[in-house]
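Try this one yourself first.
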């Protein structure tokens, strides 16, 4: 069985690397003329992505909830040669998303690239969240479900609702890049709520990609593994007694993920897995030997028998 998995992984890797990158977009949308909206940009991956576009002298609209951090980031963007603009708001609030779309239209006369980085995570096993065998939870489990779904699934769809027509009307090569996760490809213990929301993201945007191809809209998903950020410390299910499970070494750096995002947009790649071999292995392993993938996940997160 392991031989089949290895063979399948090699075939998948070859197909992955042989994806024909589109060089035409950089000819159609010049880097220093590109109009980019980065949602969720005041820390981690989103912040590094905004700075990379600034170094290309792009026009960047920065959207996040904390105005003081937005103002500071705007100054960095401008210092690097970009043109930074800020909109303070919450991606889960429709009025704020409408304001973002209107500001983008009014300020830049349109948009070429929408990058959705905002996200939330879960860190508890679902049984613990439900209160264990006694069934007396410290918090409402469904409130955590609603919160993570609002940020990870509802917000990207709502952003797409308001930006898709604008992208089609105003860009010669419109892109939507959504930051997902390897958890959107294969589940993991303590990440049940998170993985569920990310699987939903893949279902929606994989379907949308087919629907909007006729309008030359590119939809890309970037799926990193564990990234070296503070995201876990604001988990939707975190409480004072929570143990935060997950990798403590081998984490991806936000800047490396940001570079992959920019490359994915430039080359109009449909899906990027980071680290690549881990992602490809998880994909094929889940198909051919799902029990083995479960065993690896259990060991990684400390759930091995």
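Now uncover the answer:
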């Amino acid at each position: 069985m392991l031989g089949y998995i290895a063979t399948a992984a090699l075939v998948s890797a070859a197909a992955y690397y042989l994806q024909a990158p589109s060089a035409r977009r950089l000819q159609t949308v010049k880097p220093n003329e590109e109009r980019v909206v980065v949602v969720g940009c005041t820390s981690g991956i989103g912040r590094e992505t905004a700075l990379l576009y600034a170094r290309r002298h792009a026009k960047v609209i920065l959207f996040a909830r904390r105005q003081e951090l937005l103002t500071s980031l705007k100054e960095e963007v401008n210092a690097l040669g970009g043109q930074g603009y800020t909109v303070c708001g919450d991606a889960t609030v429709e009025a704020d998303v409408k304001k973002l779309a209107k500001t983008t239209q009014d300020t830049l006369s349109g948009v070429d690239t929408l990058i959705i980085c905002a996200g939330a995570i879960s860190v508890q096993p679902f049984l613990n969240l439900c209160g264990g065998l006694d069934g007396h939870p410290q918090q409402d489990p469904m409130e955590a479900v609603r919160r993570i779904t609002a940020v990870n699934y509802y917000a990207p769809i709502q952003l797409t609702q308001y930006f898709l027509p604008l992208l089609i009307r105003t860009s010669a090569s419109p892109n939507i890049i959504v930051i997902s996760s390897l958890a959107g490809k294969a589940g993991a213990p303590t990440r049940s709520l998170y993985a569920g929301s990310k699987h939903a993201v893949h279902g929606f945007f994989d379907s949308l990609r087919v629907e909007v191809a006729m309008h030359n809209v590119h939809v890309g998903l970037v799926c990193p593994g564990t990234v070296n950020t503070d995201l876990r410390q604001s988990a939707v299910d975190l409480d004072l007694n929570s143990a935060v499970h997950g990798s403590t070494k081998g984490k991806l750096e936000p800047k490396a993920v940001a570079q992959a995002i920019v490359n994915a947009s430039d080359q109009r790649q449909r899906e990027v897995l980071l680290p690549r071999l881990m992602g490809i292995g998880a994909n094929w392993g889940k198909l051919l030997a799902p029990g083995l993938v479960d065993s690896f996940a259990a060991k990684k997160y400390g759930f091995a028998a």
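Discussion: The longest strand covers residues 218-224. The chain has a mean pLDDT of 89.
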